[in-house]
Please model this.
Amino acid sequence: MELAKAYDPKSAEEDHYKRWEESGFFRPEINQDPNAKKYSIVIPPPNVTGSLHMGHALQHTIMDVLTRWKRMQGFKTLWLPGTDHAGISVQRKVVEQLRKDENKSPLDIGREEFIQRAWKWKERYGNTITEQMRREGASVDWTRHRFTMDESLSLAVRNVFCTLYDEGWIYRGLRIVNWCPKDKTVLSDLEVKEETKKDGKLYYLKYPVIGSVPGAVATGEFLTVATTRPETMLGDTAVAVSPSDDRYKHLVGRTIALPLTNREIPIIADEYVDAEFGTGAVKITPAHDPNDYLIGQRHDLEQLLIMDDSGKMNAAAGEEFVGLDRFVARAKVVEMFDELGLLEKVDDYEITLPVCERCKTIVEPILSEQWFVKMDEMRDIALDLMKSEGVPHFSPQVPHEKVYTGWLENLKDWTISRQLWWGHQIPAWYDEDGNVFVGRTEAEAVEKAGGKTLKQDSDVLDTWFSSGLWAFSTFGWTGSGSPPYEGGVAAASADGVVLSGAGEKNPVAIAPGSDMSGDLETFLPTDVLVTGRDIIFLWVSRMIMLTKKFTGQKSFEDVVITGTVLGKDGKPMSKSRNNGVDPIEMFDKFGVDATRIYLASIATGADIKWNDIGVETYRNFANKIWNATRFCLMNAEGITVDHASLMVDDMPLPDKWIISRLNKTAIDVNKALDKYEFHTSVSLLYHFFWDDFCDWYIELKKDEINGGDAASTTRIITILEIAIRMLHPFMPYLTEDLWLKLPGTSSELHHPAYKNPVATAPGSDKTVMLTKFPPGDVAAIDERAEREMDAVIDVIKKVRNIRAEMNISTAIKFTVHIAADVGIQDVFRANEAQILKLAKAEALVIAAELDVPRASAKAVTNDARLAVPLEGLIDFDVERTRLNNQITKLTEEKTRLDGQLSNANFVDRAPAEKVGELRDRSVELEGQIATLNQNLTSLS
RNA sequence: GCCGUCUUAGCUCAGUGGUAGAGCACUCGCUUCACACGCGAUAGGUCACAAGUUCAAAUCUUGUAGACGGCACCA
Model:
């Protein structure tokens, strides 16, 4: 079989995925070993509004590597895919579409119609990312695809809500919350980010003090307060000073005539106020500031709300202000204070403002009635799990474990209601008097209300509430008895339209009538969660708490936190910076496999600046693998992969050596993957394949293989087959493509758990992804062979060095003289052909001592002395320089060692083994230096 | 303000007590019959800085500088 000269990723990417998926290879049911242990991962569900970015590509690669690796180890493996309904994001898309296409607002069409449109939007555009995941080669079980608004997941949400409400863990309350005036919804603390404004201002407002009795005349005295939000003064209901502030003691108990209003407000004393800060007097706006709210409660102050849900001033702000945007009102307040002579001064002030994570609108703290989850017990659940079992185990552990526990310890209640239409509507109903009835269904609520007519709460739940259930709701848990979810069956929307795209390709491999009702028992707890550090609080922590609370199980044992892929400018990729790199473009340019293995080569958790050259390196690697296979196949007529060929006793040295290297690599790759050190395993595989297998093994064996030596060819093809298996989790397309081309591959080579997969078509059951991942065999490690091979390699390298430094054309063949101990002489003799070929020499003279003319170039290795007679070719100056360079290098090393060895402290205190090691090396160096010096002397 | 991470070859990054590594770029040489997305051979680093612990520090401790991240506060 002849392969193309270069690897073309496109065709491999197009050929294999569909067959894998349709053959059911991604499904745990493919595993026929009743005793197989399970391995499960749930995907962090990407937003349905999303398209693949480099962060996804990184995380998906890690998850797929783990999934494919464990599957090949014979685990009953499930990687469960899905998408998140992404409340605000989808709502915004639909609102925008409505405005553009029909110039209508959501209110124009009403809630029901709006939700219909949202479902349609989701159906039409929500599959972008799932299609892109197929391109990535993600071996997810598409028949188990979940959407956070699937019927069964929605049922789980309602049940969880009701249970938490019944237990008092969910409550409705009036609080200062973060309000986004653009999205017109409340936000949780975690959805609020900060933005520093250097050009902020601090306004000093003079408030006229009046007498101690309400209605008394002004005293002519003023109390100055400083504020960054002057417009909120319209909602002031007090001014507070520190109780220990002598400057203002006499004012406490008196009142202020609040300018621009006709209200009188009290001057109060409260410990919260820091006399040293600003003017020492603070305006108190209980309805628009969290601290003021608390002070207001302590002093029983009125809570005056002066804005509406879009950030415009309402009637309470006064006639002159009603309807004005908060920033227009701010300017007007300042202007009017100035006119009244009450604006003391305006200072420049650097300020950090809270902004909406998504739309960057400045968040307004306002008093509002919302639903909350009480986090006290929730926090304890998570902390206990960490303290008692160390779960989850973070990789990397530092700093995430500490950040996670630290955050838990300071946890505040979670605002879960959102003023949106797209999402899980809160299962709470109200009667005409505002009494609340919580139930799984309207009927249940009505029953609780004694048959009264009720109206459902119009809010929906925070998106993270449903994703917090993801680790178990996806496995069919609903909270209502046995899981009713039927695998692959799409969820239905309110109008009965089949909505989910999942399961449309019901593969033959799924036995008719198979259900997934055992999934919860089988796959929970999941083994590992792979995600970014930005959602540790938003998602990871909540999943840990809610899973434990509702199933009694851990959601996952381990959490792998991936780093951030930064743009070429070293900053996080973002649309506004326009520094993003599209994974799909990389796939097109370098191939999916190259992109994947490059991403896997990044140290776990480390941020990395994107560079195309990194991917190019692995594109070249893919081509190298392709060409190594090409070479093997060119000579493989009548040969088949045969694992017994690696078990024979008397193999030539290069074969013993490569088998030893292969097994060592396999053992180390498995160890690295066990520790989630993906970059270590990539590096091991890269160097094994390129350096050991290609640069040395193929070159050493080339003549035998070209000469039709069947045993050698069988062996190299078999070693290649094992190497391809090890590379498969990282480079699935290339390895599948090549593995299928290897002679003698069949489902007979599959892991015992996959010996008889149900095939859709003859031959299609054959795949590298169901072979056994090489575990590596300690018994196959041959240290002696590795030492001997190193000796041979050293000789070849030294001769090559002589040729290069002496600038001798490869057309000129010369004789190589080797002097060495008797034992190692045999090794050189046995590998004479290899040395001659790779050193491009024509003859080898092996003896105990060198016997060469003066005009020879010389070198030493750890095991031998070398000489190459170069009559008429040698440049003595160059040779002297060569020798001197070597002497210098070795002498430097020896000086350093001897320095250490002459240090009594070192000899006394360092481990004897270490001291012995250094001593041996020093003696060795001494001999080598002496030889080189002799060589130098004999030149002159 | 509190907590944390990073600083290693020109570039992008590995390396966590015992002789400093990779890929790319650079220099030199190769139309060697798998691969120029290649082969061979070199060169290149006071491991940010300072002090300490240790027989021994890129690695541990403390401090300094710079870059970045999280949390809190912000009248």
